[in-house]
Amino acid sequence: MSRHLALHRLPMIITVIIGLVLTIVPLPEWFEIGRPDFLVLIVLYWSTMNPRVGGLTLAFLVGLMLDAFTGVVLGQHALALCLVAAIAIKLHLRMRVFPILHQAMTIFWLLVLYEFVLFWTDGGTGHAVTTWMRWIPALVGAVLWPIVAGLLGRAYQRT
Amino acid sequence: MAAFHSDTRPILGRGPSILLRFVFFALLAIGLMWVDQRHRWLESVRYGISWVAYPFQALVSSPGAAWDWLTESFSTRERLQRENADLQARLREADLRMMRFEALEQENIRLRAMREATASIAERAMVAEIMRVDLNPFRHRVILNKGARNGVFKGQPLLDAKGVFGQITRAGPFSAEAILISDSEHAIPVQVNRNGLRTIAVGTGDLSRLSVPYLPINADIRTGDLLVTSGLDEIFPAGYPVAVVTEVDQSPGQTLASISARPAAALDRDREVLLVWVKEKLIEPVDAPAPPGVTPGRPAAQAPAQTQTPARASGAPAGAPTRPATTTTPVRTPSQPRVSEETRPREEQRPAAAEAPATQPAPQTQEQQDQTPPDQTPPDQTPPEQTPREQSSAPPQEEPAEEAPPEPTEVPPQ
Fold first, then answer.
1. How many angstroms away from the CA of A107 is the closest CA of chain B?
2. What is the helix (H) or strand (E) element at residue B85, kind and residue range?
């Protein structure tokens, strides 16, 4: 059983590593603000498609890594990711049968919620960022969702 | 895309419900945030995570580094020659200045020795490279490729060839995170080079602008003034250029002038920066100790700068006016604590001011130190016994010669 699970975790770990790299890879300045939260998309994908392999533990650990990588207070991204992952797991049976546009809409609202939790904890820890531009990644992420889900779907089908 | 085959276990009996698990993780995350914000225990956790993060950062920044190396090794002969000629011209210029500098430095040491003041001297510097890694786009943070293994510590000043760049906020084993002076959470105590007027320059979140928000409209500051570090924060050595004033708006309707300045360092272009180790050095008196009549000349020089600061009225300590004026240096003692008080209320306005919690307790203890002795010492004292007390009542930026060194040794073992 554990071997079986480990085999299932392999694509997940690889995609998380790719997501981490994409999160810190330098982008041209005009696009930097709109960098989608790749790791959130990846965690949401695994939460809907395979909640037992992914799930909240994955969300929490990935969130902690994001906190450490971006140098914010530890636990901020972890909290936000756990919240959206919990909702995605709750909805996962429905999410799977949604048409792709409907899925993207749901993802959009989850991303907005994610950004809101970050915004809120930013304010709570005294680092408020109040520009409207911080909501762009949610939109870009939702637009990218069909592509990300398609690519991840291939990785998932392989196993 | 939708794949069902993996979920073969029964739906019921899968352990704790999703809500319960979420509450558990959420509480864990909130607890972590609280601990990280209020206490310093998690520094070692961060140190460990930074260990894990370094390979990723190195991987991500490697294509850029490889491109740099390629362009370097294939650069043309003419370009190298041009560069060489340029560098030689600059070296000659620098040599010329150096000749004057030696003499001036000697003179400065002599003058400081007469005042029994300490000088913070940049002792050692190391070149660090900014890694090509993007962090939060709303914060001006960078990752450097030198870490605690190279002796980097939290709060270490960072310079470039033109001026102050930032300071280290977190040192990992192989890499370190630094905050730029333009970050909206950064504030740096500065001094107008022309007249010694002290204030604080605050980052705005714009790489090409600092703001100087705490000067009254009648302050003597003009466009083109150079702001240098004042050293009051005990982080940055005094006298390094920070910014040039670009805009001064002293409209009479307001209490405070709105002043903008352009950072002297090339914050957006630099790839290489200098990590500096600062040594606070107490200069031994060369001749006989200066007579008490000489020392009051110093507060007199500082007085104009202080009277113009907005924090003066509220910042005067309650204990200072009640102090007996029978001590032998009446001019000096009442004005001294004000120097420390002047910085404190402002740094409280910006909680992350220069991110140095050490600067706030320092004036407090120092003030208490020099409040007690004057009551005990009789007014008619011989000059040799005054000198140690005068040292203890020196302004806080110069005093803790024994407090500055422990910081570098304290951080690396984590």
1. 16
2. helix B77-115
DSSP B320: T
Size of interface A-B (CB pairs under 8 A): 129
pLDDT tens digit sequence for B25-73: 999 999 888 888 877 777 777 787 778 888 888 888 888 888 878 887 8
Report how far Cα B132 is from the mean position of its chain's Cα atoms.
24
**In this structure, are residues B202 and B185 in contact, taking their beta carbons and an 8 Å threshold?**
no
Record: contact A75-B36, CB cut-off 8 A: yes
Q: Strand B164-171: give its sheet, edge to edge.
A: B118-129, B272-282, B157-159, B164-171, B176-180, B141-144
Q: What percent of chain B has pLDDT over 70?
A: 61
Q: Which residues contact B168 (CB under 8 A, 6 or more apart)?
A: B144, B152, B153, B154, B155, B156, B158, B176, B177, B178, B275
B330: its two tokens: 């009446």
Average pLDDT value over all residues in chain B? 69
Nearest partner of B366 among B403, B328, B340, judged by Cα:
B340
B23 and chain A: CB distance < 8 Å anywhere? Answer: no
Which distant-in-sequence residues (6+ apart) come within 8 Å of B119 by Cβ? B108, B109, B112, B280, B281, B283
Nearest-CA distance B188 → chain A (Å): 17
Q: Provide the Cα torsion B94, B96, B100, B103; round to 10°.
A: 90
Contact A33 B137 (CB under 8 A): yes
Residue ranges and CATH numbers for the domains of chain A are 2-158 (1.10.1760)
Q: Please name the residues in contact with A109: beta carbons below 8 A apart, sequence gap of 6 or more.
A: none
For the four alpha carbons of A75, B58, B159 and B216, in that order, the dihedral sign comes to: negative
Q: Which residues of A touch B134 (CB under 8 A)?
A: 24-27, 32, 35
> What was the ipTM of the complex prediction?
0.84
Identify the H or E element spanning B142: strand B141-144
B338 CB-near residues (< 8 Å, 6+ apart): B306, B312, B315, B316, B317, B320
3-class DSSP assignment, residue B54: helix
**Per-residue pLDDT reduced to its tens digit, B372-398:** 444 444 444 444 444 344 444 434 444
Q: How many CB atoms lie within 10 A of CB A50?
A: 21
Residue B163 · residue B243 · CB < 8 Å: yes
Closest CA to A63 of A118, A18, A143: A118
Whole-model pTM?
0.64
Residue-wise DSSP of B375-405:
HHS-SS--HHHHHHHHHHTS-TTTS-TTTTT
In this complex, which of B1, B21, B36 lies closest to A150 when CB atoms are compared?
B1
Provide DSSP, chain A: -HHHHHHHHHHHHHHHHHHHHHHHS---HHHHTT---HHHHHHHHHHHH-TTTSHHHHHHHHHHHHHHHHT--TTHHHHHHHHHHHHHHHTHHHHHHS-HHHHHHHHHHHHHHHHHHHHHHHHHTT-----GGGGHHHHHHHHHHHHHHHHHHHHHHH-
Closest CA to A104 of A19, A44, A156: A44
Would you call A49 an interface residue with chain B, using a CB distance cutoff of 8 Å? yes
Residue B260 is inside which H or E element, if any?
Answer: strand B258-263
